[in-house]
Amino acid sequence: MTDRNAxxxxxxxxxxxxxxxxxxxxxxxxxxxxxxxxxxVLGHWLVxxxxxxxxxxxRPILRTASPxxxxxxxxxxxxxxxxxxVFFLVGGxxxxxxxxxxxxxxxxxxxxxxxxxxxxxxxxxxxxxVWTVIATALLxxxxxxxxxxxxxxLALSPLWFLLVFAVLTAxxxxxxxxxxxxxxxVVLHVDLLRFGLxxxxxxxxxxxPAGWLVPYTLGAAWTRGELDRRRAxxxxxxxxxxxxxxxxxxAGYPASMVGVPxxxxxxxxxxxxxxxxxxxxxxxxxxxxxxxxxxxMRRPLAWAAVALVNLSAMTIFLxxxxxxxxxxATGLLAGRLPGLHMPPDGLGWVAARLAWLxxxxxxxxxxxxxxxxxxxxxxxxxxxxxxxxxxxxGGRPTTPRTVHHA
Length: 406
What we know:
The chain is mainly alpha-helical. It is about 65% helix and about 5% strand. It is globular and about 65 Å long.
């Protein structure tokens, strides 16, 4: 009876989420955002290893390693889970649409920007505070400095993405009509200079904003209606895939679309032309899948799952590396475990790592329960009435309803 009651409550909650979603909301956008976030999370969990060693230090020393270093033929894994381009595509689309709506309502640019960035950066404060305490405690208790540096670097690595995303969001009014070919040309010339003509390697960091500006401005073009035809999606998919294959096969770019420790060239740090063209192919595929995703999101259970991910997207993104490290550190109490502390040098490690994924997910769920309020705000009590906003269209009030922000 208890199980039946629990299932009934879940079913009721799922249908409530479905029913309360505004009819005009494009659920495909939320589905693509959820896919992009979960792709990054799973990608990191699959290719990031913390190998335990002792050395001259009395405590275990952790260093990062990647199965892609030992087994480069696994590079296609990075093609499936390196989904940042899709996130920037959705981000550019949502931001330009939001800014246009804000202007129509008479909202000022500072008000709009503050609303866009507040939910982005509030969860960051919790991450910085917790990891400041953790790092200080580890150093004071005699932990190896290199290990602490490795852990902090992994925990805070998602912040580079937020910084770039915030800068592009702030520049949305200037980027709303920028042709994606301009930042693509910047990436092309930067790579030509540093790889072909021997320019200084620091020049590659110009690609950090330029590379992610390509999918972001594609998102703006989506808002303008320039990518509505399926032909645009096919051109991006076929052209991006062909260009990436040519760059890997004949121009010496790595096949892996993520960084590999010890590799001479990283496609991601900073972005290269290969990862940008690969992102074009991903964006084309995302655009082609829009109609199917809209149909799939009509199912209450599928939509509730996507809505749940979107509600905690930044918390998931910021804490997924901490969940991995917490599991790894706890596992050390039982000794060096396969899939956690062993070198990722064979398929046995891959099989063991797959078995650890549910444990990582459980640890991430604990982080979500602890820190979701920084993204979602404090939960309302049952006796406290929800704030309802009356939406006006053409000066006429419509039925009051809760407004959902993209």
